[in-house]
């Protein structure tokens, strides 16, 4: 009976007590899986491919810019070969650290050095929860995700379109998504890099929010985008157009190859890392040629496929090793580093958690500066899950607490407190315990620490079932951040005008 009583006293409110929004710094030394000779070997192999084999750029404008910079162009095959001098000189212009500015000035984030930022899942075509199962992305669920991202303080940024609203016009849905994001969150946000016009619209809307010109926002970037290489060794036209538009206006780009070992890259992890490095350096070098000093992030996404089926596999031991190695490679070139919280599970179950745990540890100890898709990713990135978002938020909060070093001082060594307690006694009633008990340890968002009897008597809910309740409670308590009515009206007018233009086009 006594144990049950203590459990009831520990029962938490249905609405979680979150850790406060905070910038995180990784105080630990990174785990380095490559020795100096191996790291140099990857570099040399990468330079050989960049110089002698080349990377395909499917953009006439990009080819002309690269040709004028000294690259060797094979126009019949759209191949670009760059000598190491051009590559290394170009990437040296990229800042090792930069700031992304949010609508709320208090929520700016630092990218680079030992800083680490978490953002939400972006890009899935499907959405799922325990109530309705898996379904096609839609605007109603998109809005719910945006509100959830704003409400979860562990998320520093919105990682893009959390689920694609396929019920909206493909030509204009980016406008609805950007408008909803801007007006419902006050954090830094990600925009699609697919095409010049979509990026241009995002930049114009950023200018409206900031009440600044395009020239003025160059010095204070406020949005970031992901530029994917269509591995192996191909940058397509729309991605290059989006990249150029972004860096010409001072906004941040993450150059991310999609290297799946055994499919889009060599079956050996070393070979995949070489190809990843080739593609990332080619994209970053091009960005710096277009706009020297523009903020860039070295993106890594190397994983493997299931050799039995050919399906992508994430959260694998190989993915973890690649995260650690990619961090080393990014630091070799003095670049901020992006990784992801990945898994291949189809539902928010134990597999989703242990694969995500592998991803998180590899990313954190590889000193990732931007953890993309940090919350909500399922099914290899095809599905955004409400329950997985809450489960991930718990894992991220725990990682955030882990990143705070404990203090060793005369007070924390607790010699006097230890001396006050008789052998075989307890510390519940000591002054130290009474002074510190409220904030001494991490308080969970989702975990249930009650004893079995109390947990069973209250419904025996699993973590996934509790996550289902939590995300709905969080949305019920969502508070929209203030936006100036005149700014809101200006955004609405812009969106309406651009939709009309697209319909006429």
Automatic annotation (TrEMBL):
Organism: marine metagenome
Biological processes per GO annotation: methanogenesis; methylation
Region Disordered, annotated ranges: 1-22
UniProt GO molecular function: methyltransferase activity
Keyword tags: Methyltransferase, Transferase
Transmembrane segments: none
Family as reported in the entry's similarity comment: Belongs to the trimethylamine methyltransferase family.
Descriptive protein name: Methyltransferase
Basic residues composition bias: residue spans: 1-11
């Amino acid at each position: 009976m006594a144990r049950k009583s203590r459990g009831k006293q520990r029962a938490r409110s249905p609405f979680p007590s979150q850790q406060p929004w905070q910038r995180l710094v990784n105080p630990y030394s990174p785990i380095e899986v490559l020795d100096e000779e191996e790291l140099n070997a990857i570099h040399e192999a990468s330079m050989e491919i960049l110089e002698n084999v080349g990377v395909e750029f499917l953009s006439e404008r990009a080819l002309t810019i690269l040709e004028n910079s000294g690259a060797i162009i094979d126009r019949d095959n759209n191949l670009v070969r760059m000598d190491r001098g051009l590559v290394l000189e170009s990437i040296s212009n990229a800042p090792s650290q930069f700031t992304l500015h949010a609508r709320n000035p208090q929520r700016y984030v630092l990218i680079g050095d030992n800083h680490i930022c978490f953002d939400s899942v972006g890009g899935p075509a499907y959405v799922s929860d325990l109530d309705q199962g898996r379904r096609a992305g839609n605007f109603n669920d998109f809005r719910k995700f945006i509100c959830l991202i704003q409400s979860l303080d562990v998320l520093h940024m919105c990682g893009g379109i959390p689920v694609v609203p396929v019920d909206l016009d493909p030509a204009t849905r980016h406008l609805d998504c950007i408008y909803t994001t801007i007006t419902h969150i006050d954090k830094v946000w990600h925009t699609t890099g697919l095409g010049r016009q979509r990026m241009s619209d995002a930049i114009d809307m950023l200018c409206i929010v900031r009440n600044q010109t395009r020239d003025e926002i160059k010095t204070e970037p406020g949005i970031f985008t992901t530029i994917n290489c269509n591995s192996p060794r191909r940058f397509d036209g729309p991605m290059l157009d989006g990249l150029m538009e972004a860096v010409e206006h001072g906004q941040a780009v993450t150059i991310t190859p999609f290297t799946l070992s055994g499919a889009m890259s060599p079956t050996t992890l070393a070979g995949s890392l070489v190809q990843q490095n080739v593609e990332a350096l080619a994209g970053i070098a091009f960005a710096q040629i277009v706009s020297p000093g523009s903020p860039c992030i070295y993106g890594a996404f190397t994983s493997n496929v299931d050799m039995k089926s050919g399906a992508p596999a994430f959260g694998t031991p190989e993915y973890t090793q690649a995260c650690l190695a990619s961090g080393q490679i990014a630091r070799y070139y003095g670049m901020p580093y992006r990784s992801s919280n990945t898994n291949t599970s189809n539902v928010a179950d134990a597999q989703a958690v242990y694969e995500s745990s592998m991803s998180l540890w590899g990313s954190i100890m590889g000193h990732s500066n931007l953890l993309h898709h940090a919350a909500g990713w399922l099914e290899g990135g095809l599905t955004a899950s409400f329950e997985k978002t809450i489960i991930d938020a718990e894992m991220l909060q725990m990682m955030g607490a882990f990143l705070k070093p404990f203090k060793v001082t005369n007070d924390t060594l607790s010699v006097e407190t230890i001396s006050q307690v008789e052998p075989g006694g307890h510390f519940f009633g000591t002054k130290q315990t009474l002074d510190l008990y409220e904030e001494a340890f991490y308080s969970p968002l989702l975990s249930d620490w009650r004893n079995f009897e109390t947990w069973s008597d209250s419904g025996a809910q699993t973590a996934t079932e509790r996550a289902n309740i939590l995300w709905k409670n969080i949305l019920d308590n969502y508070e929209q951040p203030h936006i100036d009515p005149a700014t809101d009206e200006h955004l609405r007018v812009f969106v309406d005008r651009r939709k009309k233009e697209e319909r006429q086009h």
